[in-house]
Backbone:
């Protein structure tokens, strides 16, 4: 979709980073009766980035996003969205796709897109024109005059997504955008999100599928139990866990064993070789290599692998949150 | 695509956003099949009423009329029947039919009873003489006809042609004050009833519209884009516009029926302020009454999670509205009394009370005052309703699901 985003001036609260922030949230708190849904969330989303909010169901993702778009106000804390503390004041620059998708069943597809644009200040006639063009561009031109109730769930979801983007927002907030989409449409959505970011828009989406966040995001916020134990670049999250050394040796013992950490996982394979896995020592790989060679360990293979986001999530949010994440994302991660 | 100039302000104003919602709701409802049923809705009671009336009239016309059997000595029986024939034109349908059973009276009550049992067409039996008539029959018939039969017997005793003078009838159109007042009260009652039915019907529609919206799950999309006040206002005024379209259609249909059926239809006396102004005031009071009630129903809808919640919460309000209607109807009977002034002052009953006033009193300044007061009340109710709507319509997190029932009662308490 061709997007021409207006990158006009707006007030920014910097965090020291050279990039201005599209979203800045500090110590956001939200209670529902006696339940604390969000408990002191801090976020800093750089402009033009793809930002993921990663967490299991019930972690507080939706509530956080709802506070960011202004559907609900925080009980405590400060939010600044595109430099404004009241997101509704800049509604025409924001696009929001809620987790619970919904359109008027009797509306025609292009009308639904135009209506969503009209809510954000786009004149209806222009919205209708763009609605038809967007549907055509995304291979849904044949469904433009069909009522929403006549579309499949996936098609209706795409129509709503197009409605979210029809007014060319600078900030796009998507709540669980991949859920309910088949593999083909998930791929298309990924492409669309990257296209938006390439054109200067900021995209923030929530997901409980690590693979999506790992593949697409510049930065992530890991959220669990209403708190954000980590927020920052994906690489930094991974770096929370030292790189893993995967070693295969012919010998099982010798003086070189002193160079291998005591907590290393070890296994002996059927072919008699020995496998080791341990965190890369702080001294680096060279002393290790030297000890292995001089000790005649018989190195068959040695690789240093950077930790994945999943491992980082486990380390940051804990095993329980990771299990909840896997349960919630079962069946969607591989799509 | 280029950046459009229409959104330089960054957001729609509340009124512009309300217009987007109102336009969507208005066209969606107007072009739906359910609107046709909505328009036809009032037709059903009219048709059922007409059918019931027609069937009732037919049943009455074919039902056997009560017959008085005459069993009197000699010519007395014939004289009684002749007297009945002479009096009938002046006494109309009030007189039962008479038939001569025999020219001799029964020996006593037993024989009279036996005669009645044998002749199933007879309701009562008249016997004895013209000077001492005896009426035998069931007590209710005796009590009902005693006076009229005595009148016939009195006339039979001095029976002569042209016994009754011809009364000259001078028909004039002017009605006395009592008749006029009575007629205007009837007009007031009709106006109040119509107003009540319309407000209840249409305020209920606002509620179902909102529940449907929650079911469509579009409410979050709306809430993210525009202020909730705008959603509230848009829905409220869209339904008002739909209502006015409905009323216009019904009014046109009513006028068409009036033109076709003409004098066959019952007519109401003209209200004190005259029909044109009465119609205008009716529309104004309907709009104000609807906006107050609609605000209340929308606020209820915002707190409800399920349709059952809506039913539970709206039932007391509906009952309250019914009581308010009866209160306003009662207050109408004594214009200027403390009760009537109270009905005028209470926002929920004020439109009903003031419409009734328009029917019975030609004074216009109380309407200006009442409309100003009601507009103020509408502003307050809409403001409060929109605030409640904004705070309650969007819920999130487990509190909305795990403890939904408890949350419902909390919201109810918070609302009160």
Residues:
């Amino acid at each position: 979709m061709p997007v021409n985003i207006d990158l006009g001036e707006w007030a920014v609260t910097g965090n020291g980073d050279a990039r201005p922030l599209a979203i800045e949230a500090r110590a956001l708190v939200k209670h529902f009766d006696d339940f604390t849904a969000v408990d002191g969330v801090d976020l800093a989303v750089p402009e033009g980035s793809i930002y993921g909010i990663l967490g299991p169901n019930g972690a507080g993702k939706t509530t956080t996003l709802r506070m960011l778009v202004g559907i609900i106000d925080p009980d405590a804390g400060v939010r600044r969205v595109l430099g404004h503390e009241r997101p509704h004041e800049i509604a025409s620059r924001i696009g929001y796709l809620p987790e619970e998708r919904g359109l008027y069943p009797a509306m025609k597809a292009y009308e639904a897109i135009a209506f969503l644009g009209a809510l954000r200040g786009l004149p209806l006639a222009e919205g209708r024109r763009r609605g038809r063009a967007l549907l055509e561009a995304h291979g849904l031109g044949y469904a433009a005059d069909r009522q929403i109730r006549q579309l499949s769930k996936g098609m209706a979801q795409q129509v709503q997504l197009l409605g979210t983007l029809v007014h060319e927002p600078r900030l796009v907030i998507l709540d669980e955008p991949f859920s309910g989409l088949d593999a083909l449409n998930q791929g298309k959505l990924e492409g669309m999100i990257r296209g938006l970011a390439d054109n200067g828009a900021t995209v923030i989406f929530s997901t409980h599928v690590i693979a999506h966040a790992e593949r697409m995001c510049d930065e992530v916020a890991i959220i669990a139990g209403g708190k954000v134990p980590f927020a920052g670049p994906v690489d930094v999250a991974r770096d929370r866990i030292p790189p893993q050394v995967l070693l295969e040796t012919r010998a099982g013992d010798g003086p070189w064993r002193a160079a291998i950490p005591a907590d290393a996982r070890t296994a002996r394979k059927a072919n008699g070789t020995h496998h080791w896995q341990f965190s890369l020592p702080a001294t680096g790989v060279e002393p290790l290599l030297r000890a292995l060679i001089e000790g005649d360990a018989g190195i068959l293979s040695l690789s240093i692998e950077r930790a994945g986001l999943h491992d980082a999530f486990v380390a940051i949010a804990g095993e329980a949150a990771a299990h909840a994440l896997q349960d919630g994302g079962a069946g969607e991660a591989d799509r | 695509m280029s950046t459009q100039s229409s959104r330089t302000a960054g957001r729609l104003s509340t009124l512009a956003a309300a217009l987007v919602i109102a336009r969507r709701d208005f066209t969606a409802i107007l072009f739906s099949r359910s609107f046709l049923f909505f328009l036809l809705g009032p037709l059903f009671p009219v048709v059922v009423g007409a059918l019931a009336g027609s069937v009732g009239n037919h049943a009455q016309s074919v039902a056997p009329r009560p017959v008085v059997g005459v069993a009197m000595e000699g010519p007395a029986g014939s004289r009684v029947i002749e007297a009945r024939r002479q009096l009938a034109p002046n006494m109309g349908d009030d007189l039962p039919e008479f038939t001569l059973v025999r020219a001799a009276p029964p020996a006593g009550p037993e024989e009279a009873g036996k005669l009645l049992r044998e002749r199933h067409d007879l309701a009562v039996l008249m016997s004895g003489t013209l000077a001492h008539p005896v009426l035998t029959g069931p007590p209710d018939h005796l009590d009902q006809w005693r006076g009229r039969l005595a009148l016939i017997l009195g006339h039979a005793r001095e029976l002569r042609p042209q016994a009754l003078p011809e009364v000259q009838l001078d028909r004039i159109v002017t009605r006395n004050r009592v008749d006029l007042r009575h007629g205007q009260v009837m007009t007031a009652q009709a106006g109040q009833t119509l107003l009540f039915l319309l407000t209840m019907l249409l305020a209920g529609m606002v509620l179902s519209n909102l529940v449907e919206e929650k079911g469509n799950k579009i409410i979050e999309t709306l809430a993210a884009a525009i202020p909730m006040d705008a959603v509230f206002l848009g829905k409220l005024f869209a339904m008002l516009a739909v209502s006015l379209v409905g009323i216009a259609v019904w009014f046109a249909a009513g006028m068409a029926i009036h033109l076709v059926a003409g004098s066959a239809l019952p007519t109401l006396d003209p209200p004190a302020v005259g029909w044109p102004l009465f119609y205008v005031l009716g529309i104004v009071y309907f709009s104000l009454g609807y906006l107050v009630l609609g605000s209340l129903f929308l606020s209820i809808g915002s707190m409800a999670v399920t349709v059952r919640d809506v039913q539970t919460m709206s039932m007391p309000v509906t009952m309250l509205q019914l009581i308010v209607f009866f209160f306003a109807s009662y207050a109408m009977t004594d214009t200027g009394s403390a009760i009537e002034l109270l009905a005028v002052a209470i926002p929920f009953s004020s439109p009903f009370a003031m419409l009734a006033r328009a029917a019975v009193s030609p004074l216009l300044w109380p309407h200006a005052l009442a409309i100003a007061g009601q507009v103020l009340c509408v502003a307050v109710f809409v403001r409060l309703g929109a605030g409640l709507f904004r705070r309650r319509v969007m819920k999130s997190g487990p509190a909305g699901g795990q403890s939904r029932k408890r949350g419902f009662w909390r919201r109810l308490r918070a609302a009160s």
Remarks:
- Chain B has two domains: 66-157, 177-415.
- Chain B is about 70% helix and 5% strand.
